[in-house]
Amino acid sequence: MLKRYTFWFSAAVLFQLLTGLIHSVSLFVNSEPANETERQLDTLISTYKMDLGAGFHPTYSSLFLALSSCFTFLCLFAALTNGYLLFKHTEPNVMRGIIAINLVIFGAVFAMMAFFTFLPPIVCTGLIFINLLAAFVVVPKIESAV
Question: Is this model's pTM higher than 0.70 or not?
Answer without folding.
Answer: yes
